[in-house]
């Protein structure tokens, strides 16, 4: 059975590497993009089974990326988990969910194990 593919989109190389290492350890095929533009290109190359998407990034932020992906018939069904340090403002959470995000997680409030469990739950393994 083919490995599930996860795209991690985060402009912080240390965070991206930490998430990448954890997801690879969990048995996933992982790609990393450092901004929304790179994410859109990566999705065209290989459609992920799930995306972890930061919000505050250069060039194209996470909200713009989410809108672009959910507005395209080819990518609208990709499950996207927002992973941010913006905090848990209810308006931000609702906006992300209204745009089609599966979940909205605050980096400082979730452990790697909790993130791993959330990804496993979504991918059904």
From TrEMBL:
Keywords: DNA-binding, Phosphoprotein, Transcription, Transcription regulation, Two-component regulatory system. GO terms for biological process: phosphorelay signal transduction system. It holds the Pfam family Response_reg. Signal peptide: none annotated. InterPro entries: Bact_response_regulator (IPR050595), CheY-like_superfamily (IPR011006), Sig_transdc_resp-reg_receiver (IPR001789). The modification 4-aspartylphosphate is found at residue 54. One of its GO terms (molecular function) is DNA binding. Residues 5-122 form the Response regulatory domain. It comes from the Bacteria. SUPFAM superfamilies: CheY-like. PANTHER family: RESPONSE REGULATORY DOMAIN-CONTAINING PROTEIN, STRESS RESPONSE REGULATOR PROTEIN 1. This is Response regulatory domain-containing protein. It comes from Candidatus Giovannonibacteria bacterium RIFCSPHIGHO2_01_FULL_45_23.
């Amino acid at each position: 059975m083919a490995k599930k593919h996860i795209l991690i989109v985060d402009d912080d190389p240390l965070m991206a590497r930490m998430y990448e290492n954890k997801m690879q350890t969990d048995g996933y095929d992982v790609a990393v993009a450092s901004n929304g533009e790179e994410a859109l290109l990566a999705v065209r190359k290989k459609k992920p089974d799930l995306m972890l998407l930061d919000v505050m990034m250069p060039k194209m932020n996470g909200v713009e990326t989410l809108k672009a992906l959910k507005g395209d018939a080819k990518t609208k069904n990709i499950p996207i988990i927002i992973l941010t340090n913006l905090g848990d403002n209810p308006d931000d959470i609702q906006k992300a969910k209204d745009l089609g995000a599966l979940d909205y997680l605050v980096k400082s409030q979730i452990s790697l194990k909790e993130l791993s469990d959330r990804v496993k739950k979504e991918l059904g393994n």
